[in-house]
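Bench log, entry 3. Co-assembly request; chain sequences pasted below exactly as received.
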Amino acid sequence: MEENDHLSPIEFAIEEEGLLFTRDDDAEALRITFKSEGDRYFVVGYRDDPNFVMIGSGWALASDSDFANVVSVANALNVRKKFVKTAIWEEECDALFTIELCVDDAEEIRPHFGRLLDALRDTATEFFAALGHDEPGTPP
Amino acid sequence: MTAAEQISRFLESEGHRVETSPVEAAGDLCELVFRTRGQMFSISVSELEPTRYTLSTAYEIPDWVNDRSHTVEALGDVETDFPETRFILAHDDTIFVATVEYQAVDMDTFFKHFWNVVSRLREAGNSAVERIVDRSESKAAADKFIRQFMKGER
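Structure output for the full assembly:
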């Protein structure tokens, strides 16, 4: 573990969930990627902002999606859902689900990590169900 | 590659840590344990029947639930709703184990439906917990009412 690695408590949280993970840090950002039930997730922190932690998952949308409807569904989820922000990247045809937190220490997230993962998973499932898909799309 | 090794590789490729252990006194039987959504699951597979799997997960019964007949009745009701699932009380009735047996055509089919089977088993287990707990809470509330009534407080 390198010095000033403020995401290391998240690694422990992922391990406690029984999941495997990989690190992909660079000069500016700390990144963790992992899978749960085959779906890919990421955690991002910035070296110059140790209070910010983002947990997320991204999914590809069908290229022929009705984006007015897609954005409407995303807005409805943003109004209703705790924690999760749903963003549509229309040019990339992606849907991004993120939980963005401001913490003194990522250790604060550790006991709630399972709940946050469930929130991400449920939001993606509800999003694609509202679009008429039984299952989420594919990762971008 | 053995069936247990293939399942282990599949689970790891899906992001999950797996512990594999042979079942003592059953040389061809292996148990694989993994965790998902905060719940431990185990898969039993015999190399003699490599397309037949038993998937299990255990749930604690809250200490304050002490009506065994109600628990048995609740588990029976949920078995009716989830006919592929079997429930067994264990550890002096402090836990119940939810089990589904799965006969796959081949390994690829097993993997294709794997998370759906896990999801269905989890749904059955959660439903059983809800029924055990809900009914018991209602009974506790009624008991409290009756005790207060008998003391003339109402």
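The radius of gyration of chain A is 15 Å. Strands of chain A lie at 21-23, 29-36, 39-46, 49-60, 84-89, 94-102.
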